[in-house]
Write a structure and sequence with these properties.
By secondary structure, this protein is an alpha+beta fold. Among the domains are: about 110 residues, no CATH class; about 70 residues, Alpha-Beta Plaits. Helix content is about 25%, strand content about 20%. The protein contains 15 helices and 23 strands. The strands form six sheets. Strands 1, 2, 3, 6, 20, 21, 22 and 23 form an eight-stranded antiparallel beta sheet that branches. A four-stranded antiparallel beta sheet has the order 9-8-7-14, with no helix packed on it. Helix 2 crosses helix 4 and helix 10 crosses helix 11. The radius of gyration is 29 Å and the shape is globular. It starts with a helix and ends with a strand.
C-alpha cells in the first residue's frame, strides 16, 4: 500500500495511513478522533515529533512528501522506544499494519525531552548516511538539476562531444517520476549488465509536470526523452527501431516480390534480435534545439528554416556537410585540427567531405590548395524515405526541403484523412493512447469513423545544429510535452573526444560557459 502512496503521492493520500495512528496518539495525550481528520492529522504528527514548520511545506510537495512522511512516522515510533532498523523499515513501508499493531503494545509515550540519547553503531551511522545521501541526491536529480554528457556530434559546434553540462529541470517544470521504483543514478540498464532493466514496469505513475520558471521557447537547447525510443532493438540501441523495421520491410519487399506481405520485415527483426519497450522517462535522453513550438508553421527551404513564414535565426555555430575540392594537394591535418574540424573524411586526393560552420567554411576557402567548397543538398521534391512522415506518396520531403507543417497544440483540432494520417498516426496511437485503424480510406479512432482529431498534448520540433549529421525531428517527428526533460543550462567541463580526465585532455576554452 505504501508503494501505492509512492506512486500517487498526493498530499491527501498521506492522511490515509495517519488515520491508523488514532489509537496510538491517545497514549501521548491527544484525542484519537483528531487523527481521523484529513490534513489535521499531519499537523499533529509534525507537532508530536517536534519538527519545524518547514515540514508542512515538504508534506504538500508530491514525491518529496513521501520521504517526509516516512521520516515523520519513524520519529513518531521513537516516542514508543522503537529505535531498531526493523521497526523503522516496517513503519515506513507498512504503516497500515504496523501502526495499529504498535497501538496495542504496552509501551507508554516518551516525550522528546525524556528520550535517551541512543548511540548508533558505525554500521548504522554509515547506513543512515548513505540512505540520506541517496534520497537527497535523487530528489535533486529528479526535481532540480541533472548532469548530462554530450554523446554525439549532432549539436556541433554549439555543443561538443565530451561536453559535461547541467540540465535545469526547473526551467520548464520538473516531471514526477513515471517509473518510481528504479535503481538509483542509472537510466534504463543496470550497471555491469548488457540488457537488464534498472526499473520495474508494473508500477507506473501518470504524467504530471510541476510549475516551472517558463515554457519551451524557439531556439532553446532542450533535453528530452527520445520519442522513437519507446521500442528498442537491444543489440542495435544506437539505431531507430522503426527505421530498422522499415529497412527490413523494404528488403523483404524487394526479395519476396509478389510473395511479400506487410509485416514480414518486422517479424524478422523480432526473430533476429531482442526487442523491448521502454516507458517515457526511461527512453534515451537526446539534446537538440527547439526549432518550432505548438501552433508554429515550420518549413525548410534549401536548408533554411522558416517559422510562420519568417526566416528563422540560425545558430551561430550551425554546420552543414560540404564537398571540398583541392588542386590535388591534401589538406594539412594540423590545419584542420586547428579549425576544430574533427569529422568527415577524405574521399580521394582532391576530394573531402567535411562538416563546416559558416566561419570555418570562410577560413577554409582561403587555403591556397582549395579550389571549391560546395554544400551538400537535396532538391525540393526529391524524396528520402527515412524522413518523417515516411510517406513518400503524399509528402515529397527531405532533410533540406521540408514542410510546410503546423506543429500540434493541445486543444486544437485538425482534419484527418487517408492522405495526411501519416503525420498524426503516432500522436494518436502512441503518444495519446488511442486505437487507430484505416479501413477503405476511412479513419477509425477508438472504433468510430471520424475525419477530425483534437490533440491532448503540446508538441515541439527539435533539430540539431549539425544539420546534416543529426537524427532529429526531421526523421522521427514531433516531441510530446511529456517527453521534455529540461533546459541545457551550463557546461562545466569539456574533454576531447575519446579522452579521459586523467589524460589531461581538457578543452580549457570550452569550460564554464552558458548555453544559448
Amino acid at each position: 500500500m505504501t508503494l501505492l502512496l509512492f506512486i500517487l503521492s498526493l498530499p491527501a493520500l498521506l492522511t490515509l495511513p495517519a488515520l491508523f495512528s488514532y489509537k496510538l496518539v491517545e497514549k501521548a495525550g491527544i484525542s484519537g478522533w483528531k487523527m481521523l481528520i484529513p490534513f489535521y492529522n499531519l499537523v499533529i504528527l509534525v507537532q508530536l515529533t517536534g519538527r519545524s514548520y518547514w515540514w508542512y511545506l515538504w508534506l504538500i510537495i508530491p514525491f518529496i512528501n513521501v520521504f517526509t512522511f516516512m521520516l515523520l512516522l519513524i520519529e513518531l515510533i521513537k516516542g514508543y522506544n522503537r529505535y531498531s532498523m526493523i521497526d523503522q523499515a516496517l513503519v515506513a513501508l507498512f504503516p497500515f499494519i504496523y501502526l495499529p499493531w504498535l497501538s496495542f503494545q504496552s509501551q507508554d509515550w516518551v516525550p522528546l525531552k525524556d528520550r535517551p540519547n541512543i548511540k548508533k553503531s558505525a554500521v548504522r551511522e554509515w547506513t543512515d548516511a548513505i540512505v540520506f545521501a541517496v534520497i537527497a541526491a535523487s530528489i535533486i536529480r529528479i526535481f532540480l538539476v541533472e548532469a548530462y554528457t554530450i554523446p554525439t556530434s549532432s549539436m556541433e559546434k554549439s555543443l561538443l562531444v565530451g561536453d559535461f553540462l547541467f540540465v535545469s529541470k526547473m526551467a520548464y517544470g520538473s516531471k514526477s517520476p513515471q517509473t518510481p521504483i528504479a535503481f538509483p543514478f542509472v537510466h534504463h540498464t543496470l550497471p555491469f549488465t548488457a540488457f537488464t532493466k534498472s526499473y520495474v514496469e508494473w508500477i507506473q505513475w501518470p504524467y504530471h509536470r510541476f510549475p516551472g520558471f517558463g515554457k519551451v521557447k524557439n531556439n532553446d537547447v532542450v533535453v528530452f526523452n527520445y520519442p522513437s525510443g519507446d521500442t528498442v532493438v537491444l543489440e542495435r540501441q544506437n539505431e531507430d527501431y522503426y527505421q530498422i523495421v522499415r529497412t527490413m520491410e523494404l528488403e523483404q519487399k524487394n526479395r519476396q516480390g509478389d510473395l511479400y506481405k506487410e509485416g514480414m520485415g518486422r517479424d524478422i527483426v523480432w526473430q533476429r534480435y531482442r526487442v523491448t519497450d521502454r516507458p517515457v522517462d526511461k527512453r534515451e535522453n537526446y539534446i537538440k534545439r527547439c526549432i518550432a513550438i505548438p501552433e508554429d508553421t515550420l518549413e525548410i527551404i534549401d536548408r533554411q528554416v522558416y517559422i510562420n513564414g519568417q526566416m528563422s535565426e540560425n545558430p551561430e555555430n550551425m554546420q552543414y556537410m560540404y564537398d571540398v575540392f583541392t588542386n590535388g594537394v591534401s589538406l594539412n591535418p594540423m590545419a584542420l585540427d586547428k579549425l576544430e574540424i574533427n569529422e568527415g573524411g577524405q574521399v580521394s586526393n582532391s576530394h573531402y567531405v567535411l562538416p563546416l560552420s559558416f566561419d570555418k567554411k570562410a577560413k577554409l576557402e582561403k587555403f591556397a590548395n582549395v579550389k571549391a567548397i560546395n554544400v551538400r543538398s537535396r532538391e525540393k521534391g526529391q524524396t528520402y524515405s527515412p524522413i518523417f512522415p515516411h510517406d513518400t506518396k503524399n509528402f515529397r520531403w527531405n532533410e533540406d526541403n521540408f514542410g510546410p507543417l503546423v506543429i500540434p497544440k493541445k486543444g486544437t483540432t485538425v482534419n484527418v484523412s487517408a492522405e495526411n494520417i501519416s503525420l498524426y498516426k503516432k500522436i494518436i496511437s502512441k503518444y495519446e493512447n488511442n486505437s487507430l485503424e484505416i479501413k477503405d480510406n476511412s479513419i477509425l479512432i477508438n472504433g468510430e469513423v471520424t475525419n477530425t482529431y483534437t490533440f491532448k498534448l503540446n508538441y515541439y520540433w527539435m533539430m540539431g545544429d549539425n544539420r546534416h549529421n543529426s537524427a532529429d525531428s526531421r526523421y522521427w517527428g514531433f516531441v510530446p510535452e511529456d517527453h521534455i526533460v529540461g533546459k541545457a543550462a551550463f557546461v562545466w567541463l569539456s574533454l576531447e573526444n575519446d579522452k579521459s580526465l586523467f589524460d589531461g585532455k581538457i578543452r580549457w576554452s570550452k569550460i564554464f560557459r552558458f548555453i544559448n
